[in-house]
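Re: the request from the purification team.
They wanted to know what the chain is likely to look like in 3D before they choose a buffer screen. I agreed to run a prediction and write the result into the notebook, where they can find it.
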Amino acid sequence: MKLLFIALIVLLTSAEPSKDATFKPIVVLELFTSQGCSSCPPADDLLNNIKKNYDQSEVVALSYHVDYWNYIGWKDPFSKAEFSDKQRRYGKKFNNSTIYTPQMVVNGKEHFVGSNEGILKSKIKSYLGKKAENSISISNVKKSDTSISFDYHVEGDISNKKLLIALTIDERTTSISRGENKNRSLKNSNIVVEQMEINLNSKTGKTTVTIPQLVKSSDNLSLITIIETFDFDIVGGSQLNL
């Protein structure tokens, strides 16, 4: 009987978490910005301050540079059409007829003007009080000059969810010679330079992300992993400084 009881305890403790399992809160901030937008620098500075003053295991900051301001005269070197498309998908989700910069999106669930410090800190506090649906851990990270490979393990229910992987540059200062921010030096942080998505059919896996040519050997990089629903709600995530 004693052996049976011990076996039962082992079975229960090793069982998969239920669909109602919860994990440590995570707040993911996605700032849509552009070096060609005169109202964006205050939002860029705010995101940088948040990054420095909050625990990065709890608050993950991402800066997505859109490309629709490039026509004004300055082509943002970090801008990508896919980031503009990502913002348009949020616009559709939020029933917005237009998209704008600077826009801050929190956990894929709500948005506001990205330079509004009061609202941002209030939202961070609120979301830090809510448990996450998933957690993710990264291991066996191998970095070369052109790519980063790693293993991942997700905890919690993965039904109808996907893994978003983002590679970010910690910080870069750019001298702007044209456009609305002409003759300014702009500091951007946690700049997304590469991203990819994986549908979660399994809780474990291996993958590789490409390091784009614009990354310099002196850049500090971070690997961001995010669990999100097909409706773009963010329900888990992590950040690993490389």
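For the purification team: The domain at 24-241 is CATH 2.60.40.10 (Immunoglobulin-like).
Please add any questions underneath this entry.
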